[in-house]
C-alpha cells in the first residue's frame, strides 16, 4: 500500500473515533439531564405528605386559637350584622364600610372646624362671630306649649312687660324675654301660635317637635339656639306657670358676672324612680346604681340658669349630650363632669303666699315663686295675679338697678 493511501486510511479512522466520542458524550449529558429533572418532579413521599399536612394543621390551629374570641364571617349589611358566606362577601362590604366612615369623618372634621372657628369651647371672648354684636345681660326663655295660651296671657299681665316697654327693657337693661316653643307634629297646629306671635312678637320658635317626652331635647335645643342668637352673660329657663321678679333676678346674677362656669337654681337630689307608669319614671334608672338611689345634685326644672360659656359648651356638644327622661336631670348630667360652680339660692325656689310674702318682709325678695306640690303655681292662670300682688317686687327694683353691665363690644 502506498504512503498516500495509508495516510487516508489513518485520517478516516481518526475521524470515526472522534465521532463516536462526541456521540457518547452527548448521550451522557442527556441521561444526566433526565435524571436531574426526574428528581425535581418526583411525587412527594408519604413522609413528606405527612410532614406537610402536620405543618398546615398547626398553622390553621394557631389561626383559630388567635381568633376564637373574634366573631368570624360577620359583616355590616343593610344597617345590621349578617353572616358572610365566603371571603368575597366579607371583604367587599368591609371595604365599603371603611370608605363610608372615611367620608363621614371628613365631613365631621369640616363641620367641627367651622364650629370651632366661631364657637371655641369655654372661650367667652370668641363665642360670637367676628362681627361684634350687641351684648345683653340675660336671656329669659319661658318654656310653653300649644295649649297654654291662658298661662302666657297671665304672665303677660303680671311680670312680663309688653310692647315698647319690653323693647326698652332689652335696650336699657339688656334683658331678653321670650316664650319658647317648637313645632307641632300635627299639620296646621302651628297656625294659632303664628297668629299670637304676630300680635305680641314675644316668641322664640325652636327647630324642635313638641312633646312631653321631648323636654330634654327641647332644653338642649333652647340653650344651643339662644347662645347663637344673643350674646348674653346668662341664659335662664323658666316654666310658664312660674312667677319671676326680674329686677331681683338681675341683682342676684350680677354677683356672678364674670364667672365663666356658673349653674344657678334651686338644687335638689330627688329619687330615681324605677317604677313604670309613674310620673318622672326614669327608664335608665340602672345607670344611677341600686334601686332606691338618688340623682346627683341638679337644679329643679321650674327654674335654672347657666353662664354663657356653659351654654356655648352645650351648643358645641349638642350631638354628643345624652338625654335622660327628665330635662332637669339631663342638664345636670351635661354639667356634672365640668368644673362648674353650683349656686343654690333659696330665692330661686320660694313657695306661694304666705311663704314668698314672709321672705319679702324679711328683706329677701324672691326671684322665682311656685308650689312644690304642683311643680308650678297651682291654677296659675288665675292665681299668678295673687302671687304678683303679694310677692311681686317694687317696679323701681327693675328699672333702677345698675349693678349689671352690658353693651357693645
UniProtKB/TrEMBL annotation:
Which cofactors, by name?
Mn(2+)
This protein's source sits in the domain of life called Eukaryota
Identify a single GO molecular function assigned to this protein. Answer: galactosyltransferase activity
Per the record, the pathway is:
Protein modification; protein glycosylation
Q: Which Pfam families match?
A: DUF4094 (PF13334), Galactosyl_T (PF01762)
Give the record's membrane topology: Single-pass type II membrane protein
PANTHER family to which the protein is assigned, alphabetical: BETA-1,3-GALACTOSYLTRANSFERASE 1-RELATED (PTHR11214:SF343), BETA-1,3-N-ACETYLGLUCOSAMINYLTRANSFERASE (PTHR11214)
User: What name does the UniProt record give this protein?
Assistant: Hexosyltransferase
> What organism is listed for this UniProt entry?
Trapa natans (Water chestnut)
Amino acid at each position: 500500500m502506498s504512503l498516500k493511501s495509508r495516510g487516508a486510511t489513518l485520517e478516516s479512522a481518526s475521524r470515526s473515533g472522534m465521532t463516536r466520542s462526541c456521540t457518547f458524550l452527548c448521550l451522557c449529558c442527556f441521561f444526566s439531564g433526565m435524571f436531574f429533572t426526574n428528581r425535581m418532579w418526583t411525587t412527594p413521599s408519604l413522609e413528606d405528605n405527612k410532614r406537610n399536612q402536620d405543618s398546615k394543621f398547626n398553622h390553621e390551629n394557631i389561626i383559630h386559637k388567635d381568633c376564637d374570641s373574634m366573631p368570624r364571617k360577620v359583616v355590616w349589611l343593610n344597617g345590621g350584622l349578617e353572616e358572610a358566606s365566603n371571603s368575597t362577601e366579607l371583604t367587599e362590604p368591609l371595604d365599603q364600610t371603611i370608605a363610608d366612615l372615611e367620608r363621614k369623618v371628613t365631613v365631621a372634621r369640616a363641620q367641627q372646624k367651622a364650629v370651632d372657628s366661631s364657637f371655641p369651647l369655654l372661650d367667652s371672648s370668641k363665642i360670637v362671630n367676628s362681627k361684634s354684636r350687641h351684648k345683653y345681660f340675660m336671656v329669659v326663655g319661658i318654656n310653653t306649649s300649644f295649649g297654654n295660651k291662658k298661662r302666657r296671657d297671665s304672665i303677660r299681665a303680671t311680670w312680663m312687660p309688653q310692647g315698647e316697654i319690653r323693647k326698652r327693657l332689652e335696650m336699657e337693661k339688656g334683658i331678653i324675654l321670650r316664650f319658647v316653643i317648637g313645632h307641632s307634629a300635627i299639620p296646621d297646629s302651628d297656625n294659632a301660635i303664628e297668629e299670637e306671635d304676630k300680635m305680641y312678637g314675644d316668641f322664640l320658635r325652636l327647630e324642635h317637635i313638641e312633646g312631653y317626652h321631648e323636654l330634654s331635647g327641647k332644653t338642649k335645643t333652647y340653650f344651643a339656639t339662644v347662645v347663637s342668637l344673643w350674646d348674653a352673660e346668662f341664659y335662664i329657663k323658666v316654666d310658664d306657670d312660674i312667677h319671676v321678679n326680674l329686677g331681683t333676678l338681675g341683682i342676684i346674677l350680677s354677683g356672678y358676672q364674670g364667672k365663666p362656669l356658673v349653674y344657678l337654681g334651686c338644687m335638689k337630689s330627688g329619687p330615681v324612680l324605677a317604677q313604670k307608669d309613674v310620673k318622672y319614671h326614669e327608664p335608665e334608672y340602672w345607670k344611677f346604681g341600686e334601686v332606691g338611689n338618688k340623682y346627683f345634685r341638679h337644679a329643679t326644672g321650674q327654674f335654672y340658669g347657666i353662664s354663657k360659656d356653659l351654654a356655648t359648651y352645650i351648643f358645641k356638644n349638642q350631638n354628643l349630650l345624652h338625654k335622660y327622661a327628665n330635662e332637669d336631670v339631663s342638664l345636670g348630667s351635661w354639667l356634672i363632669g365640668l368644673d362648674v360652680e353650683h349656686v343654690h339660692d333659696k330665692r330661686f325656689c320660694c313657695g306661694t303666699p304666705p311663704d314668698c310674702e314672709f321672705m319679702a318682709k324679711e328683706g329677701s325678695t324672691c326671684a322665682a315663686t311656685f308650689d312644690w306640690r304642683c311643680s308650678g303655681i297651682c291654677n296659675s292662670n288665675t292665681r299668678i295675679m295673687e302671687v304678683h300682688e303679694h310677692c311681686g317686687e317694687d317696679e323701681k327694683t327693675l328699672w333702677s338697678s345698675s349693678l349689671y353691665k352690658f353693651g357693645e363690644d
